[in-house]
């Protein structure tokens, strides 16, 4: 595929490669991934006539070896444009989300332990924490079981999230995908998803969590999103 | 707001900014916070005619980016006096505690996992550990459900702690707040709160914890507070 | 024992000592071992007429003190050929695997917490996660109880794994052994074993994990092994 | 107290101060302590006519601030001989163990999470792991409830351990104490105590751990102690 970019578009892509590379270290820092099992992408909006592209982790490369130059650039169909490695095998799912949710600028996928455990039993993470009201505006929903290889995962993510306040979905038997206005926001959502999954797991073992009235959740969410910006 | 401070007061405030900044790294070190979800403040007692002020974390800044200069200074109503960022959105709660508990010199708030799980089910952390007798003098109590935005959280903290030995309160569905004679003591209480929450969670899963007679708890508490000073 | 090697064989052995030494730090990094309780080995296939040898951790040396030069070289009966220390006390089990499974190039043993807990109750780790389908092709099986000191452990590993897709076996009351095409692949399997053990533990506490149909597991496994190579 | 030591005794004490200081960092490394809640001591056997002394952590000093010079030296009654700080408040218990168990050269006390949870419910950690057979020779027993301030804790430790193979005792409602031929061995026992407590906790949640026949435990213990030396 031959693509030409203006200097401004090329610079925006290079900036995204640096950011996406650095954000992978946050997945390690917050304990969200083991070995190579997680990936971050960011949309670069087209300028000077270019189409949008996405920057994502290369496939099968360990986190210690990641550099900005090793981040791959794909079009929004998931086709490789620039990169010495193949894109992450989850690229099709990321690309589908960018094609169908224009407001999304970043996507993250992990198999973080506690969130993935909720996904294995197919239960949403219930909202009994003010920090969940703030960040997720309610429970974190479960998406359908879907196999890798076509658009099934992407469709499951989009169908679950398009009518939800939550920036996170637990794909059944698989693990969480999170979205945000940029990659950093999606990484934050991934870190918070695991934290609330862990906290709610412990709470559910301790007894019956106390309900927070819906209007209080609405109030928390409205205030937080107003202060910190939409995800 | 225009405030003038004597050199001695200004120096005391700068010293507190250094200390409060450094103490945020302890929250990370002991695993008490994810992303930006925790804050430490310290009271600086007014000298040379100045009113007391509080030094607290700026809002929405990641822990890696914190510097002494980024710590903000507020009056005890929570109004910003000095700082390039807004104060933490929990400042009103900290300020309320300083106004109503004159012996308190430091306040810490986290969403640490196990303590927050007890808060989600509205159960106090029961005192079956000698280290709890030492540090907390009994169970760690639960405070009321309260929304951010007015003095409700501060009132709930003060009403729960004013007649308790415990330097920690679990605000229902929210998380722990801790107090101390200075910020370091409040951070220690936050670390110990999470540790005893985690230990008691495991104990409650293993079976029925053995009661410690009240007079033994009293003895542990009296000795420890005498040795290490009142919180 | 006197052995002579060609320069090429000697170089291959030195390369393996460097790799095996470095891979022990991955056991620490992913939280798989406490103190000295884990070991990694790699087969070096004989060239220029030499027999295969294995490179393994020395016995009772802490991880901080390991150097490539401290890695010991043994024949495939487990006899020491080169090394200032005794080989790991688990060497006989590693050697047995290499003698009986020619495709295996790396073996790892740990007592990682969650996998060892499944071993203590003698339950396989059930496959309710797409990442297990990918990496293990089904459940992680339990091997027999066997004492150290003869070939019992090695036999138990080989009998359990020879007809299984799984590169990991949980030896009853003992802990996991993993295999791979080289030591790095076996370390990856060890890290993934602990991760799926932890995730499935949490899932089993939360409720009934949802089954993944066998043909979906087959599909996941076929695709992943094709992309990333056989273990 | 005025004590004079030969150069050889003085050198042995300085060596112990370095070792005991460094071993405290192992408590942090293996996650055994929060804040200042753990301590390591080592006996220095008297030479050139001197009495035995013990080297122990100073009281209330954070782990980051520990230096060899800050380690305090006490006689075996627990009286301070050399040191700028008070000895750990647990010194009386350490000293009692050294006075009554001549083979013991190191003592460690922690409140490590899972071991302390077993102590809170007063249940021994049952031996369903080969690594427990190796290191502990059976279950880890529970000692009596005892308050700090006199010899009760020391007596409870000695009475529980003197007829046990285990180098660890869980003091009820309090936490583990471990012993060894030197401080390093006692620290290893403390790390292994927490690890087997955590593993057995998970196993007990998963189901009924499988029994290991007593003669197999005896065999594991005999072999391991022969290879690695008596604790």
From TrEMBL, chains A, B, C, D:
Known EC number(s)?
Answer: 5.1.3.4
Instruction: Give the protein's recorded name.
Output: L-ribulose-5-phosphate 4-epimerase
Q: Which residues form the Class II aldolase/adducin N-terminal domain?
A: 18-201
Question: Could you tell me which PANTHER family the record lists for this protein?
Answer: FUCULOSE PHOSPHATE ALDOLASE (PTHR22789), L-RIBULOSE-5-PHOSPHATE 4-EPIMERASE SGBE (PTHR22789:SF8)
Query: Can you cite an annotated GO cellular component?
Result: cytosol
Q: Which GO terms describe its molecular function?
A: aldehyde-lyase activity; L-ribulose-phosphate 4-epimerase activity; metal ion binding
Report keywords, A-Z: Metal-binding, Zinc
Species assigned in the record: Scrofimicrobium canadense
Q: Which Gene3D superfamilies match?
A: Class II aldolase/adducin N-terminal domain
* An annotated GO BP: pentose catabolic process
> What chemistry does it catalyse, as a reaction equation?
L-ribulose 5-phosphate = D-xylulose 5-phosphate
The family note in this entry says:
Belongs to the aldolase class II family. AraD/FucA subfamily.
Its organism's taxonomic lineage begins at: Bacteria, Bacillati, Actinomycetota, Actinomycetes, Actinomycetales
Q: What cofactor is needed? A: Zn(2+)
The main enzyme category here is isomerase
Instruction: Name the InterPro entries for this protein.
Output: Aldolase_class_II_sugar_metab, Aldolase_II/adducin_N, Aldolase_II/adducin_N_sf
